[in-house]
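Incident log entry.

Two folding requests arrived from the same account within the same minute. Monitoring flagged them as a possible duplicate submission, but the sequences differ. Recording both here for audit purposes.

Request one:
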Amino acid sequence: MYVTMIKGIIFALILCKVSISDIRTRTVENYLSVMIVITAFIGTQPIDLPYMIAGALIVPLPLFMAALIKPGRMGGADIKVMSACSFLLGIHKGMTAMIFGLALSVICTLAIRLIKRKNIKDSLPLAAYLSAGCILAYLIL
């Protein structure tokens, strides 16, 4: 129980740094994704590794496909962070995290753009929303 709590705290702190970095500079340093992958090994059994690898490969596929379809619209950092988070969370929690994060981004973006009357084509820090979804998925499921 304590291991899961410590792992969750470390995970949340890293994701806070990811969010701050993405909001301020629209970039996320590679070492943050590596730190998430390292955190994934806390309290993990070797038998869980195939499930973790599958999560890292399968969950970020929709983001990768979106980046291929519309080049320049989505950064690689979003895909890397989601892949690292899915490695930690696994397939089920990873997909849930991505759904939570994307839903949160749509709701918040629409609300912000209605209030500030901004153009719908302005960029948004997606990694921050995905981070929130990952924290929610880690805590809820």
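Request two (distinct sequence, not a duplicate):
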Amino acid sequence: MSAELELRLRGAVRGMRSAVIAYSGGVDSALVAAIAHQELGARALAVTGVSASLADGELEAAVALAAQIGIAHQTIQTHEFDNESYRANPINRCFFCKEELFGALAALARERGFEAVADGTNADDGAAPLDVRPGRAAAAAFGVRSPLAEAGLAKREVRALARTLELPVWDKPAAPCLSSRIPHGARVEYDALRRVDLAERYLRARGFSIVRVRHYGTTAQIEVPLADIARLRSQQSVLERSFAEVGYERVEIDARGYRTGSLNEGAAVTLAD
């Protein structure tokens, strides 16, 4: 992590003068929140959107981390599940989620007198072929700033600076919303999200820190890093019994391993057009 990149980031944050930060508690938004607190003080507010797509434990962790950083923090309830376009789960589902979130944050910023809304998008986001991010269109519509990307910080630099600042999430795996486990075109239902959440919590309790449970009706398809597949397979009979308790009749282990954006593999060309 170069000193120049850190200076760029601090300059980008200072240039906002005051800001509401879209804060999930992941490493990207936590770093923006920490720098904003250092550079803007009371003129920075971290805000976490809460809905059924938030995995269990994530809100509590975000609250605790905001307290450690020292930044003012509040939560808002978001209502993307009231939007049929979101529930239908098209390939641009994330647009409708971010439209709801950024619209609420922009309104809050106007009401409270903050000049900017900022998020944790970094310079890597959207760079990989399957890393499609329809939510960026919503960010652009509301004029959301992305200081990490503006300063040129990729994920590696984000983690390095977060570690230097002693943020405990510097090496936290990505934790996208639970709706990202539902294949595009399959309706997002509350029960499906509950089942995914329970299944992933069970796997993490068994020592699989990086895991995705892709939801295909009564089938759960599990992704873990390639190095963990053999250990996961050795537990398959136990997994099948446990997953049956939350409604999965079949458990599959993806031999290709965990990879970002796997549910976009069939949609990447369409999204790129």
